[in-house]
From TrEMBL:
It comes from Paraurantiacibacter namhicola. This is Nucleoside diphosphate kinase. The gene is ndk. Its EC number is 2.7.4.6. The keyword ATP-binding applies. ATP binds at residues 11, 59, 87, 93, 104, 114.
């Protein structure tokens, strides 16, 4: 397996409940290394641009509103097959369907407030990383 990178967001529901460290520990315990991290408060333009792919979907407005409702932590994670590893530790989008021991089963409040976002492919990971980070901010 190759060492790759993926993108992660610890969402406002988790930062509001002071779970940043607990979520990061679960990511690290799963074999992922944080090579870049920053706490930001997304603007409407940032959230709208980041979730542009969902613009035509009925939940887009609520998603942008939620993601701008409080601080988030954006991270670049590195590890063997990082996208898959991160998706495995995050668990299913709907926490009711997530496996025990996953981030979403452990911490998510609902399908909307589901604690974390993670890239779904290597291609999207690069796009998402580049959206929030300059190369000089990523220190591996």
């Amino acid at each position: 397996m190759a060492v790759t990178r993926t993108f992660s967001i610890i969402k406002p529901d988790a930062t509001r409940r002071n779970l940043t460290g607990a979520v990061t520990k679960m990511l690290e315990d799963a074999g992922l290394r944080v090579v870049a991290s920053k706490r930001i408060h997304m603007t409407e333009d940032q959230a709208g641009g980041f979730y542009e792919v969902h613009k035509e979907r009925p939940f887009y407005g609520e998603l942008v509103e939620f993601m701008t409702s409080g601080p988030v932590v954006v991270q670049v994670l590195e590890g063997e097959d990082a996208v898959k590893r991160n998706r495995d530790v995050m668990g299913a989008t709907n926490p009711a369907d997530a496996e025990e021991g996953t981030i979403r089963k452990t911490y998510a409040e609902s399908i909307e407030a589901n604690t974390v976002h993670g890239s779904d492919s290597d291609e999207n990971a690069k796009i998402e990383i580049d959206f929030f980070f300059n190369e000089d901010e990523i220190v591996g």
